[in-house]
Design a protein that fits this description.
The chain is an alpha/beta fold and 353 residues long. It has 11 helices and 21 strands.
Length: 353
């Protein structure tokens, strides 16, 4: 059996992915895996042969390596270097010792990270048009010096957004991006123009494992052509509160009636995700959108509330409406009314989305 791991929506929603699936099936039985956040944004009932896991790619590969004879990582990245940097990190963290291939669909490149792959498989992939490349040589990703730890973000591009644990921290201003930790706390990021809210988040983040910190850069997040059909949800109950960090929506949501999202880009990301389930959101924003997400869709009855400071008003909503909790059993309508009631002198405008 061969495992095929798709990294993100772009890797799965294109003709390259389907060709890989159909061709590899002719060589051996397959298991198709989509890890991480994108496993929830790709919702297509027809894709019943794809398994979605809400855990890191390296964890998926580590488990699969016990039951398959080889793995294929499929990426669709902003550049070959970016895709290969991702593949290298995933392979190293997974700690696997079975044959491993990476297919970069943006330019049809094939990297054989761990040799020993079936000759029939290699012939099929090369027959699809993939060209075998030499393994790229990257600078050291993590190193230690004078009680400090350093981590280099490979293949960062100037003007990209930098995200840490799903939170927008700032924009890349140099091709060399390095995070510096001291006493397990992030003390500096070189090569980044850090936005105010990103700096505040870094102060709150506390102790971290720089090896496991989720970091990536991207020019934007956009639905690709052939985006899956909307899957209507069953009627849920309760409302979830999310403050500037969309990645945790899946840990909180389940079968819900609505979401309150604080932050311009957080509203967009969650709005797009929840639109696939026809779950409305209330976005609390102040107009400092970074433009990370393009062509956003929202479920019917979604609302945008404009304030002078979404951070301050978001804290007020958290304390007075959600009582400091991340979920309320109150109805979506009741939550909306409560937000309006406490925001008489804070709300600039209310817009139906």
């Amino acid at each position: 059996m061969i495992a095929i791991l798709f990294h993100g929506i772009g890797a799965l929603n294109n003709s390259c992915a389907q060709k890989v699936i159909e061709s590899v099936k002719k060589v051996d039985n397959i298991r198709c895996i989509v890890p991480g956040m994108s496993s929830k944004t790709v919702v297509d009932s027809k894709a019943n042969y794809i398994e979605f896991y809400d855990k890191p790619a390296s964890s998926c590969l580590s488990g699969l390596s016990q039951i398959v004879r080889s793995v294929i990582i499929v990426t669709y990245s902003k550049s070959e270097d970016s895709g290969m940097a991702y593949g290298k990190i995933v392979i190293e963290r997974a700690g696997i010792n079975i044959p491993a291939i990476q297919l970069e669909c943006s330019n049809w490149a094939l990297a054989e990270w761990i040799p020993g792959n079936n000759s029939d498989l290699m012939r099929v992939l090369e027959g699809l048009g993939f060209r075998k490349i030499s393994l790229p040589q990257f600078k050291k990703s993590i190193w230690y010096k004078d009680d400090k730890s350093f981590r280099r973000l490979q293949a960062a591009t100037v003007d990209d957004f930098l995200l840490i644990e799903g939170r927008i921290i700032g924009r890349v201003i140099d091709k060399e991006v390095i995070l510096i930790c001291e006493n397990e706390c992030l003390v500096e990021i070189k090569g980044i123009n850090v936005k105010k809210s990103g700096l505040e988040y870094l102060k709150k983040i506390g102790k971290i494992d720089i090896n496991r910190l989720e970091i990536h850069s991207t020019p934007s997040i956009s639905p690709t052509k052939g985006f899956p059909e909307i899957k209507h949800s069953t009627a849920g109950s309760g409302v979830v509160f999310v403050d500037h960090n969309a990645k945790h929506i899946y840990d909180l949501s389940g079968d819900i009636e609505g979401v309150v999202a604080v932050g311009d880009d957080t509203m967009d990301i969650i709005g797009e995700i929840m639109s696939q389930f026809q779950i409305p959101i209330i976005g609390i924003v102040d107009g400092d959108k970074d433009g990370l997400f393009k062509n956003v869709r929202f479920a019917n009855d979604s609302i945008k509330i404009m304030t002078e400071s979404d951070d301050e008003f978001g804290e007020k909503v958290s304390a007075e409406v959600f009582c400091g909790e991340q979920r309320s059993d109150r109805s979506f309508r009741d939550i909306y009314a409560a937000i309006l009631a406490i925001g008489k002198d804070k709300i600039i405008s209310v817009i139906n989305l």
